[in-house]
Amino acid sequence: MLLLVPLLLTPVAAVGSEKRTLLGAHAEYRTEVAPLAARIVAAAGAAAPRRGIRPRVLLEGAPAAPRTSAAVRDVAVAVEGAVAGDALGLFCARAGSASTESWASPSRPLLLDYVPLFGAAAVGGARVEAAPGANATVTVTARLPHARCALEWRVIAADATLSAPVVQASAFNATFPYHARLAFGPHAQSEMWLSWSVDTNATGAGGVPRVRVGVTPGVYTREVVASQPMTSYAASDMCGKHANETDIAKYLFPGYFANVLITGLAPGTRYYATYGSLDGGFATETTFTTAKAVGPDVPVRLAAFGDMALSLWDGAMGNVAEVVRLHDATADGGLDAVLHFGDLGYAEGSTVIWEMWHSYIEPATRKIPYMVSQGNHEVDHASQPCFQDPVGLDSLGPDGTSFHQNGEWGEDSDGEGGVATWARFRSPGVGVPGGTAPRGNSIYWYSWDMGSVHVVMLDSEHNMTKGSPQWKWVAADLAAVDRTMTPHVVVTQHRPLFTTEAGSQYDVAELMRADLEPLFHAHGVVAVLGGHIHSYERACPLVGPAAAYKCEEGGPVEGITYITVGTAGATVHNETMLPGTSGVLKGWRVEWGLGILTAVNRSALRWDFYSIAEAKVVDSAWLRLL
User: Fold this and answer.
1) Which of 16, 17, 332, 357 has the greatest number of CB atoms lying within 10 Å of its CB?
2) Distance of alpha carbon 182 from alpha carbon 192, whole angstroms
């Protein structure tokens, strides 16, 4: 069968009695890859005739030496003899067999993306450069990601038949570093994780990962050598099917992940670094800024969202571009960190999707600390007890079933079970032997201080009930917060603690809120940010028991504000509103965008929701104003 990656997503229509209207220009976007892939399968099965056309790679955008940054290259591809209705397809093919393999074979290439050759803008920033015409030669400039497989171009005719392939030569050195990603270490003011990927695990001292760092561009006064081996994962490490199946659409060897904890840094300081190894070479310089010194009036600015997926137009890529723009808006960096609380690239066991997602977000992750937690599409796997949690955590409740208790624990990770996220990312919850004690439990739950803000990232896919390891940890963490130094306490997790969406999502929120909300109120949590629901909701600051919520009216803003911002790129949700909840809902949008959290001083914490479609802030509120 033809395998496909659903890169292009369409909005979901409203359901239920209380309809909501889609905002933005979603109706203008193209349909998803899946229907086209299905037509290709049908055409191949019918042995439909093919025209003798083939793409010709005109100019390959090989990386400069040294490479400039991300694992994405621009290539110009010419299609000779193109006619109306043709598209250029990018396929991921089995190495060594793609060009000769018959379409009668059970193994077929994976359709990653396609570019209409006439009359439409292409995906990922590519544009048609030639005017339409019969049998024209059309040149398309397209973005080529690192996808850990042989890539090939094929022309897809209007009847869904395919031309012979042209294999895209790889320009990636097997030991060269790519997919850089930053994260705060256990002591955010003086430690920074810098992680990256390589294709091979070079042996000997020359292959050991290392970072060269300094405070002046191009001048590196220190070299930090990795104190731990590189990580990876095998198909057998996964929870179960289909993530443990070696297949072009699921498990392919992901390479190795280097993780270097840079210590001895100064707070709020910009550093310049290059990373790699003596044998494999060093990447082009990147820059990062450590967390600001803790203090009640030290300003902080964070981007926040969940649920990105691998959508290559205005959704995910719009959010990444806006994050980079905000960060570069001022000379000293406009963003202090990015908070991505679950449902990252929606890989669900697919190495190819993981690699492509890293390729496209790297412009942000190599210069801004990118703090992640896990969602259902990274973790959930219901076929217990095969859950192979990398750090031995219990995702189940006391009775051996999901602590969500209502059927919300499914097969959403398709067997991945959190293994890939754990191997690829670091956080303040991860330390090194002899170093600063971790501030949490790996990438699952952790916290850090920066400026006037204390940030807690929780894991809604692991047991959060009272008395569970996670509940005990967050209770102790919040009790230890010095509110005279970090007056603003913000909590994130993938599933929202409050939502107006009717049905099972509200039920899960109620269950989690019963155990967590009293704790949050007791320790002065200002806001709880979540995703999972692919729309934007902002409630008023809420006071009182959950059964009798009311908006806090007048005076200082001190109640908990619940915000859902699962709008980073996945298909938007347009759902039925739970009766009786509209009175507490102050902000609501069904479109892609990101949240911006700004701590001004000890008395003021502001929230803004930025619309990608409208390119402006469309909802704002003071979460704390004393």
Assistant:
1) 357
2) 7
Within its chain, how far is the Cα of 140 from the centroid? 28
- Tokens 């005076």, residue located: 555
243 to each of 229, 350, 392, 411, how far by Cα in Å?
A: 24, 7, 19, 11
> Within 13 A of 81's CA, how many CA atoms are on the CB side?
11
Angstrom distance (rounded) from CA 521 to CA 336 = 26
CB 279 within 8 A of CB 175: yes
pLDDT of amino acid 101: 35
DSSP bridge partners of 371: 339
CA neighbor of 357 nearest in space, from 304, 444, 421: 421
Question: How far apart, in whole angstroms, are the C-alpha atoms of residue 493 and residue 455?
Answer: 11
How far from 102 is each of 97, 165, 367, CA to CA, in Å? 9, 11, 44
What pLDDT does 314 receive? 52
At residue 34, the pLDDT reads: 58
Amino acid at site 544: G
Residues 6 or more apart whose CB falls under 8 angstroms from that of 180 comprise 194, 195, 196, 275, 283, 286, 362, 365, 366
DSSP-derived letter for residue 284 is P
**H/E element holding 511?**
helix 504-522
Rounded Cα–Cα distance for residues 264 and 66 (Å) = 28
- In sequence order, the 6+-apart residues with CB closer than 8 A to the CB of 46 are none
Residues of the chain with pLDDT under 50: 1-31, 61-70, 95-107, 120-131, 171, 385-387, 394-401, 407
CA nearest to 220, candidates 166, 285, 283: 285
542 phi/psi in degrees, rounded to 5:
-105, 140
CA distance 16 to 158: 37
- Beta strands (DSSP E) in 407-523 are 440-441, 445-450, 453-457, 488-492
Closest CA to 297 of 599, 625, 606: 599
Residue 22 burial (CB < 10 Å; 0-12/13-18/19+)? middle
Question: Rounded to 10 degrees, what is the CA torsion of 30, 33, 38, 44?
Answer: 110
Tokens coding 52:
């003798």
What is the separation of C-alpha 403 from the centre of its chain, rounded to a whole number of angstroms?
25
Report pTM: 0.87
For 166, residues 6+ apart whose C-beta sits below 8 A from its C-beta are 54, 55, 56, 57, 152, 153, 154
421 touches 354 (CB < 8 A): no
By CB neighbour count within 10 A (0-12 exposed, 13-18 middle, 19+ buried), where does 291 fall? buried
Cα separation of 248 and 196, whole Å?
23
User: Residue 462: what residue type?
Assistant: H
Distance CA 156, CA 116 (A): 9
By residue count, the chain amounts to 626
| pLDDT on residue 403 | 56
What pLDDT does 333 receive?
62
**Residue 264: how many CB atoms within 10 A of its CB?**
9
HSE, side-chain direction, 13 A CA sphere, residue 472: 4
